[in-house]
Design a protein that fits this description.
The strands form 2 sheets. A 5-stranded antiparallel beta sheet has the order 4-5-1-6-7. Strands 2-3 form a two-stranded antiparallel sheet. It has helices spanning about 35-40, 55-65, 70, 115-135; strands at about 20-35, 50, 50-55, 85-90, 100-110, 140-150, 160. By secondary structure, the protein is of the alpha+beta class. It is elongated and about 55 Å long. It has one domain: Molybdopterin cofactor biosynthesis C (MoaC) domain (Alpha-Beta Plaits), CATH 3.30.70.640.
Length: about 160
């Protein structure tokens, strides 16, 4: 049963008032494929542009996005994050010259509900920022594989296989 539907199948916010406050953590990842023209600009795990450093700007955007998750996703509870960290790592060029960039977002909170959506939003906003800042060089940027890797706290812990 979906938790965001009431008995009449209408959208509803999940009532978390009776749940215990626990420490909750989530780790999400997004992959961005930089086409060769943009990948060629990666130096020292960063790309400098007229708009500023792409990876550092994407990190800030991801953290800001994670903090605003409750405003962006309907029925998502607003959470006062205890911590949100984003790490961006560029891989080695493939035979075509493209580079996969991996974005990890770790979010944690002491709350009555999980922080998975914040971690997913943080990784996604960082990926979208890389696209926005890199599109001046190429529109061939691909955002893929946005997913939750782990969550702890609440009723059960979960880890991707």
């Amino acid at each position: 049963m979906l938790t965001h539907l009431d008995a009449q199948n209408r959208p509803t916010m999940v009532n978390v008032g009776g749940k215990a406050v626990t420490h909750r953590m989530a780790h999400a990842v997004a992959t961005v494929v930089l086409p060769p023209a943009l990948a060629a600009l990666v130096t020292g795990n960063e790309i400098q542009s007229k708009k500023g450093p792409l990876f550092q700007t994407a990190i800030l955007a991801g953290i800001m996005g994670a903090k605003k998750t409750g405003e962006l996703i309907p029925l998502c509870h607003p959470l006062p994050l205890d911590d949100c960290r984003i790490e961006i790592e560029a891989g080695r060029p493939d035979p075509t010259g493209a580079v996969e960039v991996t974005i990890h977002c770790h979010a944690s909170v002491h709350a009555r509900t999980g922080v998975e959506m914040e971690a997913l939003t943080g990784a996604t906003l960082a990926a979208l920022t890389l696209y926005d800042m890199g599109k001046a060089v190429s529109h061939g940027i691909v955002i893929k594989d946005i997913r939750l890797l782990e969550k702890t706290g609440g009723k059960r812990d979960w880890r991707a296989q």
